[in-house]
Recover the amino acids of this structure.
C-alpha cells in the first residue's frame, strides 16, 4: 500500500498564549481531495500555512510520501510537490488559464519549460 501523499503527526502551533493547533493528525492519501472546514479563527488556515511553509510548527512532524519533511518556506513546499490555492484567489486578467495555474511555480526566468510542463500536467489531470 502506498504511503500517504501528506501526513501530519501531532502538529501544534502557538502564538504566545494562544494555542492555534493542538496535536493535529491528518492523513491525505494520494489522489484524494480533502477540505478542512471550520469557523473563522478555528486555525484551519494556520495548519495549511504550516504545510506550505508560511509558519513553522512548534511540535509535530510533516511527512511527504512517508518521509519527514522540513518545509521552512513556500519554495521548499513547491520543490516537494506541495501547492497551495489561496482562499482569496485572484486571477491575473491578461494571463491565460495555463499561465495563471503556472504562476508561482515558473521554474526560472524563462517560462517556456515551465509552460510545457504545466500543459502536460494539466492534460494528465484532465485525463484522470
Amino acid at each position: 500500500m502506498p504511503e500517504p501523499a501528506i501526513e501530519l503527526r501531532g502538529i501544534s502551533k502557538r502564538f504566545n498564549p494562544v494555542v492555534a493547533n493542538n496535536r493535529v493528525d491528518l492523513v491525505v492519501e494520494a489522489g484524494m481531495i480533502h477540505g478542512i472546514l471550520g469557523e473563522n479563527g478555528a486555525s484551519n488556515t494556520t495548519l495549511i500555512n504550516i504545510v506550505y511553509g508560511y509558519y513553522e510548527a512548534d511540535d509535530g512532524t510533516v511527512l511527504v510520501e512517508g518521509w519527514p519533511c522540513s518545509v521552512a518556506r513556500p519554495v521548499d513546499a513547491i520543490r516537494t510537490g506541495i501547492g497551495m490555492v489561496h482562499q482569496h484567489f485572484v486571477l491575473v486578467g491578461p494571463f491565460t488559464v495555463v499561465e495563471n495555474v503556472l504562476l508561482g511555480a515558473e521554474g526560472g526566468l524563462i517560462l517556456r519549460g515551465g509552460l510545457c510542463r504545466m500543459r502536460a500536467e494539466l492534460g494528465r489531470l484532465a485525463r484522470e
Observations:
- The two ends are 20 Å apart (CA to CA).
- Strands lie at 6-15, 18-28, 59-64, 67-68.
- Residues 111-127 form the longest helix (17 residues).
